[in-house]
Amino acid sequence: MHSRRTLLSAVLGTAVAVAVPPAAARAAAGTTYYVDSTGGNDSADGTSTGTPWRTLARVNQQVFQPGDTVRFLAGRTWTGQFAPKGSGSAGAPVTATSYGTGAKPVIAGANTVPSAVLLENLRHWTLDGLEITNGTGSTTWRVGVEVRAKDIGAVPGITLRNLYVHGIDGVAQVGKGNIGSAGILVDVRGNTVPTYYTGMLIEDNEIADTRAYGITTWSTWMQREGWTSLWGELNIPSTEYGPFTPSTGLVIRGNHVHDVGSGGINPNQVADTLIEYNTVARPTSTTTNVGIWWSGADRTTVQYNEVYGARFGGRGLDCTAFDADASTHDSLVQYNYSHDNGGGFFISVSLGSAPASAVVRYNISQNDGNEIFTFSTNTDGVDIYNNTVYVSSSPSRPLYKIAQVYHNPKNVTFRNNLFVNQANLPYDTAGITYRNNLYRGGPVPPDTAAITGDPKLTAPGTATSRTDLAGYRPLAGSAAIDAGLAVAGNGGRDILGAALPATVAVGAVQGAPGSYGAPLASTTLGTGQGTVAALADGNEATSWASPVGVTLPGSITLDLRSVRRIGAVTLATHFGQGQGFTRVDVHTWDGSAWTTRLTDAAVTWNSNSSTVERRTLTLPAPVDTAQLRIVVKAANRQWGNIALNELTVT
């Protein structure tokens, strides 16, 4: 997290045949403007591909209206700041995106502006499909995309989607960080009119090579529970802060944040936030920060994320995967995969008089370091159940404890957890109750119903990603099976999506593989090479290919053998540019009919070699289903057939 514990201790419109729609409906359709940095002309009207504008200056002069779209030509670059004017409306946002074929259009701040893209006091805006940079290698703190508001009340309808934000300048020095610098920064200033965002969506972006944060939000409307101001590097006067007024309904989904100096994903001053299906890789390269953390936050759900590679910053410091931080209430941390983080898996810590409370369930921690769980200032009410923790006998990073206590936490419980503790790490006990956990290796803390039998896990310690966790399934005869205590409101699913039985297992994964069976694959496309069974055998080295000259569309169906909750589907293939799927629909079975979840989802492959590539398609929302169908509508056909190595759901 941002503050170190050493410091903490001191769709609009109608369509009627023949009839002409009213003027308001016509206006909502908006105007499309085009921009070409080499072939455009700022004196042109900009309303066709033959008469595009040329510069950001011309775009920034325009006052956009609801429903308008500004399209930047693919493969072109603009240097400076994109700072548009004019707001959209509900159902008719203003959109900035691309046109043409080729690489994403680039907005390059080039260290000439604080933010390469600035949406200031705008409502109902969408950024989609742009590449954004802001750096020349200098030590000036910069931002990629900044969404800013001040003293204007509610700010609805901001969407940031499919952006590639990278190369953001700052201080590349250990110990230096700045929460005012990020790939994507959402901030609120002022203390005259309570200001907050509603329904913001940040999804499917890649944020990389930033000297500070990946994605962060904060607000001067943050005072409560003894917390009176934000962090010093922001240089905000103490008189500017106002009473807690959170942004609501923020969704941060499907983002890939990697190689950032500070925190990966960090919402602050929020309520009812959903953080899911993100990957955060190698955060905290220059500071003692956290992969995903949140503060000034009520009812935050953090699920289906993978965090790995945070460096080891030193004992008693951060660099963990997850952190319920200052003034956090009712956090839910579930179905996540944390591995190889130098600081550990989870921290609970707070400021002032604010207790940090959370439920942590059905997660897997593999070879995290330092202190796997840490409980610090004002932790009060953290319920940790049905997680699996694996610690190798030959750790590659410093390790101290499974559970570490600082500064007198209270009401912390561990129950139904499975600890594979090959490094013989101890457990702190002050303020912690242990009950009905399975301990394999190492000491056993005071536990009123400790289980010490063999968990007989399939292949613990071998998981390579969040879609590769089957090695933590307990086999027949496992001491974990049917050994769990009943927990009310336990979510109904394990980390693999399997429905929980009446008597649960200990740990994050339920039952032996035979209790629900491996998925079965079938296809309407026929088979020319390999077998369709290879698509669900868990082995990316095996594959299926259609006959040469296959007719599209056709489908591949995955029978999951039981109802599971899924939020994404991953396609894995080699020779993707020669035979990979390029456009698909995704359907799920509701028990009586197929429901379309994604339509015309584009899939792009980078290579045409034997190296297996993976592409994940995230559903709009998680779905309970027993079957999934991929309808292949277009594909690369260099050799006349199409192919796939593996089809998995998560």
Low-pLDDT residue intervals, each spanning 5 or more residues = 1-27
**Percentage of residues in strands:** 35-45%
The total strand number stands at: 52
What's the rounded overall pLDDT mean? 91
Largest sheet: 14 strands, parallel
Helical content stands at under 10%
Helical stretch count? Answer: 4
Structural class: mainly beta
Description of the structure:
This protein is 3% helix and 41% strand. It has 4 helices and 52 strands. The strands form 7 sheets. The chain has a 14-stranded parallel beta sheet, with no helix packed on it. The chain has a 13-stranded parallel beta sheet with strand order 3-5-8-12-16-22-25-28-32-35-38-41-43, with no helix packed on it. Strands 6, 9, 13, 17, 20, 23, 26, 29, 30, 33, 36 and 39 form a 12-stranded parallel beta sheet that branches. The longest helix is centred in the N-terminal third of the chain and has 7 residues, at 23-29. Residues 1-27 have low confidence and may be disordered.
Map the helices and strands.
Elements: H1 5-9, H2 23-29, E1 32-35, H3 56-61, E2 69-73, E3 77-79, E4 94-99, E5 106-108, E6 115-120, E7 125-128, E8 131-134, E9 143-150, E10 154-156, E11 158-161, E12 164-168, E13 182-189, E14 196-198, E15 201-203, E16 206-210, E17 213-219, E18 221-223, E19 242-243, E20 247-248, E21 251-253, E22 256-260, E23 265-271, E24 274-276, E25 279-281, E26 292-298, E27 301-303, E28 306-308, E29 320-324, E30 328-329, E31 331-334, E32 337-339, E33 344-348, E34 356-361, E35 364-366, E36 370-375, E37 379-385, E38 388-391, E39 399-405, E40 410-415, E41 418-421, E42 432-435, E43 438-440, E44 520-523, E45 529-530, E46 544-545, E47 554-573, H4 576-579, E48 581-589, E49 594-602, E50 613-635, E51 643-644, E52 646-649
Parallel strand pairs: 1-2, 2-4, 3-5, 4-7, 5-8, 6-9, 7-11, 8-12, 9-13, 10-14, 11-15, 12-16, 13-17, 15-21, 16-22, 17-23, 18-19, 20-23, 21-24, 22-25, 23-26, 24-27, 25-28, 26-29, 26-30, 27-31, 28-32, 29-33, 31-34, 32-35, 33-36, 34-37, 35-38, 36-39, 37-40, 38-41, 40-42, 41-43
Antiparallel strand pairs: 44-47, 45-46, 46-51, 47-50, 47-52, 48-49, 48-50
